[in-house]
Amino acid sequence: MQKTNDNPLYEELLKDYDHKLSHSGINGERIAKRLFELSQIGFVQVGGIKRPGFSDEEKAAKALVKKWMKESGLKVSEDGAGNVTARLEGLQKTPAIASGSHVDSVPNGGNFDGPLGVLSALEVVEAWKETGYTPNKPYEVIVFSDEEGSRFNSGLTGSQAMIGAISDEEIAQLRDYNGDTLEQVLAHYGSTIESFKAAKRDLSELELFVEVHIEQGKKLEQACQPVGIVNGIAGPAWLKVIFDGEAGHAGNTPMIGRKDCLVAAAEFLQSIPKFPKAINNTAVATVGKLEVFPNGANVIPEKVEMLVDIRDINEEPRDLLIEQLIEQAEKVAIKHEVHATTKLNTRIKPVPIANDLQSRLATSLNKFDIAPTYIPSGAGHDAMNLGRTIPVAMLFVRSKDGISHNPKEWSSLNDCVMGTHVLKDFIEDAMKR
């Protein structure tokens, strides 16, 4: 644990807090205190958080949340994938309404990505407890394991286990940053491969899942609104593009007749931005990884490999973008007399948010004089996995400068509390349907 003066999160959150926002059982000071207490677990001197999935730090953070859950009167359980579920029974025996997020982080991450969604979901229970409200339907608060993927370089592990989406082959291939297998990591955590597989849940037990998350973008800032509506979660596709040319001496090979695959790759790379723009305003394509072989200063490259990350909240335009980029790679290769090879390594279905759920979220926002802002989520979330089977909804809370996965990540306590009020109203409405 670090001393409070090393990590002034609690004081910073309360500095500009409007205490009038603490009403209807929702307590901003409690949210701030809990955000601070979680921030102490895995705190690093540069001000960030390091809580990898299945680490001792993530486990400690879950233990703290479980303590709060039990104190609020919830029945708490944890499955073999480390997912924590806390349940409040309702007046009726129906499928449950659920909300939550995660408490793991990227290396040197921030204090809001994940924990805000968990604490908002739990604060709804605290508010009901203080106001004497009993929900008609069961309500669950869920904390998912290893959402960020910093452990295995492959995220959403807990929610994938919950929906049974990880195959035996994928399990066998997983290695963490120490080279340990999933089986070894689980053994240290206190679980087994068999228990991990048994984490698959019958999702007919859930009617709806709603997640609160920081925006990770600037649209709410630009709109001057504290909370917004996610209209879809983009499904990523990773397209591997390889350009093969001919190596040669940089000084002795004439410019005419060269088969320089890096020049071809550069033209392809420069052309990429125009394709998403021509399709719609939600599609994106990014090259963040590029390798040149043999990567010598005086050698004409003989091969270039890159990964193109392609996303959209709708599957058809996303897949059209993939096709167009494949055609463009082949066209550029012919022009430069090199060879292009493409391979789609990853293709995950986007999850659009149902119009009815967006409309109901908008109704809740309007009750708090918040103008609805609709935002596509380019990042993956646990809601995306659950959304393959059950209806899901998401709320974004304004993030300063759109920063996330960074110690500078910041959402004001006013905005966090407003997000919790909207969540509570939306869930209470869902309880009546």
From TrEMBL:
Needed co-factor(s): Zn(2+)
Q: Which residues bind Zn(2+) 1?
A: 102, 113, 213
Name of this protein:
Allantoate amidohydrolase
Q: Which residues hold Zn(2+) 2?
A: 113, 148, 405
* Annotated Gene3D superfamilies: 3.30.70.360, Zn peptidases
Give the Gene Ontology MF terms in alphabetical order: hydrolase activity, acting on carbon-nitrogen (but not peptide) bonds, in linear amidines; metal ion binding
Its organism's taxonomic lineage begins at:
Bacteria, Bacillati, Bacillota, Bacilli, Bacillales
Homology family: Belongs to the peptidase M20 family.
- Alphabetically list the UniProt keywords: Hydrolase, Metal-binding, Zinc
Q: Which residues form the Peptidase M20 dimerisation domain?
A: 233-336
UniProt cross-references to SUPFAM superfamilies, sorted A to Z: Bacterial exopeptidase dimerisation domain (SSF55031), Zn-dependent exopeptidases (SSF53187)
The record's remark on the cofactor is: Binds 2 Zn(2+) ions per subunit.
